[in-house]
Design goal:
It comes from Methanobacterium alkalithermotolerans. Pfam families: DUF7504 (PF24336). InterPro entries: DUF7504, P-loop_NTPase. This is KaiC-like domain-containing protein. By secondary structure, the chain is α/β, with parallel strands linked by helices. The protein has a single domain, classed as Rossmann fold. It is built from six helices and twelve strands. It has a ten-stranded mixed beta sheet with strand order 6-5-4-7-8-3-9-10-11-12, with helices on both faces. Strands 1-2 form a two-stranded antiparallel sheet. Strand 11 and strand 12 form a beta hairpin. The longest helix is centred in the middle third of the chain and has 18 residues. It is globular, with a radius of gyration of 16 Å.
Length: 218
């Protein structure tokens, strides 16, 4: 029950029950990476949950325009701060959280969505994306965020899902990076037009971003 990343010419398969850290700077293209990752899951009939601390649900839906959204759930930790929680298509698949600091309510929304897709929709494969862990660390201390992610990662592993945890590596000291790495089974780093994977497999490929698409170089 492996998971495909969804980028053309990138044949890596992610084993079920894997939590992955996706690191890179603002211009590395990691936002495009997770978009491919979610789109592939939706195309395969899998459930996908995006926890967003950086983009509103409205903006996310615009970015995924044209994709079948039936199994896509969004936990929006942005809109409430700006009074932008307006009703929109797929409203029942969106949960608004007051602040990225409210990890308890994020966990409640996650559990609700996971239970819904697994029990009511009987979907066995699940992808969870956190965009981003770096923002969570701006609002809560390292210990609190680690405990929260540990609970999430345990549920991912026991349920055979996959999680992708985005992080701005240069924004954190070694202690923060090493602590968060403890809950992961793999690390994907995007840096200097190279994607490097470590953990459940070891490999590297060259890439470039052309017209908002990631292209793998031969």
């Amino acid at each position: 029950m492996d998971y495909s990343i969804g980028i053309s010419n990138l044949k890596w398969l992610i084993p079920s029950g894997t939590n992955i850290i996706l690191s890179g700077d603002l211009f590395s293209g990691k936002d495009l990476f997770y978009k491919y990752f979610i789109e592939k899951g939706l195309e395969e009939g899998e459930a996908c949950i995006l926890v967003s601390t950086n983009e509103t649900a409205q903006k996310i839906l615009e970015n995924f325009d044209g994709i079948k959204m039936d199994n896509f759930c969004i936990i929006d930790c942005v809109s409430s701060r700006f009074g932008a929680t307006v009703e929109m298509p797929f409203f029942e698949q969106i949960r608004y959280i007051e602040s990225p600091m409210d990890l308890t309510m994020i966990m409640v929304a996650l559990n609700e969505f996971i239970d819904n897709v697994s029990r009511e929709k009987n979907i066995k494969k699940l992808r969870i994306v956190f965009d981003s862990v770096s923002t969570l660390l701006m609002y809560s201390n390292l210990r609190t965020v680690f405990k929260f992610l540990h609970v999430v990662s345990t549920r991912v592993r026991s349920g055979g899902g996959v999680s992708l945890l985005l992080i701005e590596e240069q924004a954190h000291d070694d202690m923060e990076i090493k602590t968060i790495q403890q809950i992961s089974q793999g690390i994907i780093n995007m840096d200097s037009n190279e994607i490097i994977i470590r953990g459940f497999k070891t490999d590297r490929v060259r890439y470039e971003i052309v017209n908002q698409h990631i292209q793998i170089k031969p």
